Fold this protein.
Amino acid sequence: MEENHDVFAEYNSNSTSTNNDHGWQKVTYQKRQRKNKAVESVNNHNRLVPGAVISGGDNVFRGVEKEAEERGRRRQEAQKAAAAANAGAIGVVPVRSKHRSDDEYGDDSDDEAAPQDAKAEEEKKSKPKKPKKPKVTVAEAAAKIDVNGLSAWLIELPNFEEDIQVMKFADFFVTAFKTVSSAQFPWIKMFKESTLAKIADIPISHISEDVYKTSIDWISQRSVRSLSTFVLTSVDSILADLASQRVGGKGAKKGVQQASSKSQSQVAVFTVVAMILRRKPDVLINILPTLRETSKYQGQDNLPVIVWMIVQASQGDLVVGLHAWARNVLPLVCGKSSNPQSRDLVLQLIERILSMPKARTILVNGAVRKGERLVPPSALEILMGVTFPAPSARVKSTERFEAVYPTLKDVALAGSQGSKAMKQVSLQILSFAVKAAGEASTPELSNEAAGIFIWCLTQSAECFRQWDKVYEGNLRASVAVLKKLSDQWKEYAAKISPLDPMRETLKSFRHKNEKALEGEAESPEQERLVKDADKYCKTLLGKLSRGSGCKKSVAFIILALAVGAAAVVSPNMESLDWNKLTVFFSSENPFL
């Protein structure tokens, strides 16, 4: 019994010693418990052996706790003092850290951080929002432009060089449109998605009549050189903005124009460029070679800007518009970059030009501008190709080209028959017409080219000699031309004058045909073409002979009547020189 009592007493003693905290329990975080255990594993001499009974064990750990707390307190005070010193040096009030030392056993850090977070949220909410800038449209900004203010601005410009004057003139409109954001003038989106008719008057349509008239009156007094320099610089700015939008908008939402630092100035740039080109279209003529030959102005993306510029110049002069279209825009329909979008834009432009009042009359009368043809031979060749393609190559735009082709052809062939300029043009056209006339796969093109070839023959006798040179190498084309001449001789007979060059050319063809038929033909097709050509040559020579005989008969009758009348008036018939009459009638074409 004594042993059992001693064991029980020992148990009670241990129980009492382990519960001397008077009912208080210390709550700690699991992380800190794990850290404390890690420290205890290092300090093995403080580690308790499970099941061992140590008298005064609580006092041992309490001493360790106090020492740790003291160290943590000293460390915290040192950190606060250092933070206060640093804050005093830079004038910043220190902010208490949410994080406490691992040796500090206090657990009130989260409780202190929560009010601070709530306070920060309240401060954010309580901050007043910046007032949004009012949205100003292009129309609203344009309506505020004061014509008197513009006039006063222009009075000061003569103090500067002309190039600077033009730039300062543009600066006036930059200031006027400075409140217009890119969202109110999304020109890239408009140019890409809108028809030409919708963008043609943007943004010039918003300018009042008084401001517009004052502006163009001032522009009219500036030189083409200074205005050309400004327009080229402006185009560079526009295309640079377009390029930056393409690069910066790759990850952007489709159809949304990115904000641009130049959005305000671009409204002014478009406005001033439009007024310059409308008032002085020659500026466009002056920069066309640069636009055509410099790579940075080329490409599908830049085409809408170039087309917009031509539209502005066309408003002032249709002749300039067609001149620019034929040289800088039309060639794009047959280039490597040709696609339905570019063809549509090219057609929209020419359809707009030809739809203007009295467009055909104006363009035909102005077919030659300062020694240059509005539609040069190279443009006519392109037009023939896109208007008369092979049946399998027809596209939606073919019908639209067919609609504008007759007028453009008339402009291309307009001029004084027999003039030196037309002789040169006819030789240039004949060189590609003879090739097109020999296209067996495209009968429509062959027929059209044969008709243009005959037109060349009516302009210069030199074209007959040129035909004689290329005859054997272009038998198929020659047959097409000879057949058309034979079938429609009544139409062409009056246009070909004199007839002697044609007669000599046909005789030369017959001689070449006889030589070809005497030898061995290259192929049955070649032999057939030679025979057809010879047949039409005989027919045409016969018509030439009959035509000459009829003309002589008519001439003889007229002369006989004249002689009879003279005999009645004057019986002295011996004065007539019959030898001269004999020579007159022996000529092939006495009245030609």
In short: The two ends are 165 Å apart (CA to CA). The chain has a mean pLDDT of 80. The CA atoms of residues 506 and 537 lie 6 Å apart.
